[in-house]
Amino acid sequence: MQSGISVQSADLTERYQRDGFVLPLDIISPAEAKVLRDDLEAAETELQGNSEELTLLRSYPDRLLPSFDAVIRHEKLIHAASQLLGPDLMVWSAALFIKEANSPHIVSWHQDLTYWGLDDAEETTCWLALSEASEQSGCMKFVPGSHTKQIVEHVDTFAEDNLLSRGQEIAVEVNESDAVPVALLPGQSSMHHGHLFHASGPNTSDDRRIGMAIRYIKPSMKQNTGDKPLVALVSGEDSYGHFTIADSPSSRLSHEDFKLCRTDKALKQRLLY
Q: ∠ at Cα 156 (155, 162), nearest 5°?
């Protein structure tokens, strides 16, 4: 596994524009990643037996845990995303993608922006590893240069072993030999374009593979439907009013924040389905 590069790297933008991704970026230390993981897993234990709130926690960790709200605002992530999108940044979503140890779950080949209902592609995803993401544990894989394609046809499989909401899968053939594995150490991040072809395999390791997919967008973006889902304004200002700006969590796993997440989840499900 390669050592990370600095978000100050002069060729970060050049690499991203050429390949559609850049990795691995050194964001936080392994010890800091462990603190985040411990906070998440403590919250999972507290919510044990409440499957609905557990699902919300994994979809909205930044809205329910102050530690995760802080990480989406981390200066290194903001600096990296700002190089691509400018100084004004929102987080459209920051969901967790968790593959349990020895899990068959996969993510099929897809493009992120296929079903989000946004009017443009001024978005980048920073995927932050909270545990080791290796080929054995089912790390992502990218096809360099595929971000230059517009959205291609996808089919909805709704396969049980697929972590995507609809089991969506690119309907054209993807040459696996072109793919680059996205191996990350805890605390490292990759950054990829919303049109990039990417996927991931099963976790055959004895540890959970935990990653946070932080979707940064420009405030000029909007939903095609005119709806205003919940976002976090993490840098600069919003001069458009296309989204509902969320406050930071009022406290840890607060009742009021769960209510906000429930409302937003219902809206997002309507947009995605």
A: 120
